[in-house]
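[09:14] KT: can someone run the structure on this one? pasting the chain below
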Amino acid sequence: MSIQEVAPERLAELFHHYQQALAPEFACDTKSDTEPWEHVPSQEKNRMIAAARLALLELTASNHLREDVRRFFAKPGEAEWGC
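[09:31] RB: done, structure tokens below
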């Protein structure tokens, strides 16, 4: 699965799930850390989904930049030298 195929809603939900699962390891004991995704207020869900969407856009953009940079550099042993 590529980054373009990841739904921001799914990423936000998974992030919330893992944040909740890891909370005890980091001594977090707030109400928001124990709240199931279904009970998270819609405004908070929308904020997390928007953040996930921006993160995916940034990852996609940086991935494209790396591909563009690679296009301009020869693989080892393939460079042509000249004056």
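[09:33] KT: thanks! Residues 20 and 33 are 5 Å apart (CA to CA).
[09:34] RB: yep, looked fine to me
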